[in-house]
Amino acid sequence: MNKKFFIIAFSISIFILILILIISPRKTTPPLSSPPPEPTTTQLRAELTNLTEEKVKNAINYRKLVQDRFPIYLKDFKTSVGITTTINIYSLSDDDPSLMRLEIYGLSYLHKDELDPKKNPNIIAFAESYARALSLIRESGADPTQFIFSYGDRTDIHTTATYWVEQLDLLR
Q: How is the chain split into domains, by residue range?
């Protein structure tokens, strides 16, 4: 009798465990992706494809005029959504002479198409950091509307940042 009780209890326990395993959600691990390729001149020149020759020439001349005011670097910029970012505005000697790099680190560039700030607080963090970057440029005595900006070396970050700047009309 005692042995039958243990067998029944053991069987019921196994059945419940199997049921829990079947019902419980599974956590999946996303596949590892390879790192993006290093930037090339072709990637950086993507900003230039829709611009007039005059705009590019003006950007080159303006960058030369104000190059002594850069780089600008602001670490630990606190946004209203609790995301702390770093703002870096600079150019490299081997960059296209018309481009100025404006990079914002510390937030997630995933979910590019989610423009609802309630669902994607990174939108707010990006917009506030971008506005602060433009303010820093103005404080240095330069006009941010005269630059052609590149928003990062990685294609995914560059694409998302460019999209957010355009969709949120941030370059004013």
A: 39-167
